[in-house]
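To whoever picks this up:

The parser on our side crashed when reading a file containing two proteins. I've narrowed it down to the boundary between the first structure block and the second sequence. Both blocks are reproduced below exactly, byte for byte. First block:
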Amino acid sequence: MPPKSTSTFKLADVINQTNNSPFKMRIRDVGWHPDAAKNGNGGREELFIEEAIGRDKDGFLIPFGVPKSKGSSTNDVPFKEPTQPGDWEAFNRWILGGPVPDPAPDEPALTSLVRALAGACRRYNASLHRLRRLHYHVTHPQEKIFPPRNPHGDPALPPTGGKTLSQLVADAEDNWKTVVVPEMYNLLDNAQSYNGKEIRVIAVDMIEVNGYIVSMRVVAGGTGANGEIGGSSSHVSISSAFSSHSP
């Protein structure tokens, strides 16, 4: 089901582009606050922030993982920070998750869905970087240091090859609006079929850094007792996060 528009205090305001900008899309300004909704007087109404719950192979609910590391008995101790430098990679998996599995015959539908979403995340990141790099060039042409060119889709700047800066901006905005965002909506909102098996996203948590998706946790399944969301879940990092072609 497509998301409905909702009021939130979590995001910054939407503002207009500067005068004479070749960009047509308005800007979501930077900023973050704890989430809340508007009350009847237009002020904050504090909210309980729900989570998606996965299930194990036997159908039992699995709460989302927390930071943990090995204790003196070599057992995992929740919320304990590592004491050995080599343990930090495993410790940080609660944030970044594990790698996206390699394709395999007859793999679970969830794995195929996660791989498709990972590809969509890479294209999302690449397209956003393309837009931001162009915007930086438009708004700060006098600067000496510019965002680096991503080899996966970024045009040369200043423009070469016959297209004007305005045309490059129009191409980038069109890619974002007609290709990248619709692809993501389709995967998030519609049932997908892999190897004859249908699966639908129930909930997804995208972990972002500066607006770029670096990892995600996907829950796909049904709604269990008491209305709790429960389904197969996977938590993976987005490798090659700005590539449009990596598996």
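<<boundary where parser fails>>
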Amino acid sequence: MNGQSSSRRLISLGSVSVAFAILSLFVMFAGAQPSSRELAGQWGPYQDPEPAPKAETPEQARTAIRRLQMRAISAHYRSIEATLLFQVHASLAADADALARSAENLPQLFEPKSPSSGKSGARAEIWDEPQLFGEHLAGFRTATLDLAAVAGGNDRTVAAKALAAVRYQCLACHFHYRRIEGRPGAESRRER
């Protein structure tokens, strides 16, 4: 029952995230920004300190959503890392499950073609090398599923090794397909 209840909560959180993303897109493309970031509820009104994402074009909106999703992936990874490092009982299994679900949705974040136009972000090679980029996505998906399979166990060493495999997949993909300010562009993987 506990696992089932946990799954329902995770699905609910995912549904809330999707609903928020859709609402944000509606607000951005309706030409209106929220007049106030004040939120009212049973404990009174509160100001939201985080600004809503902004975009003027569909490409900018896709980039903004992709960046937010990547930050969420990073937050789950770092939470697992801290749980293992500090040897505390935290949401290891829930974070691992969230990583696996995020990995499943990654391909959607890169369709249609929308390379970042700024100093950092997705490089055009993602869409120029779809098979190789797909191999990175598949490797990340496999690593996150392996982590999720061991995260609920009591062997922290096994979980740490699985987490290192996830991080390896992140770093390898970002080296080839993410533009980072100040870092020279990586060579194409076609030359391997």
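After patching the parser it read the second block fine. The CA atoms of residues 66 and 109 lie 6 Å apart. The two ends are 49 Å apart (CA to CA).
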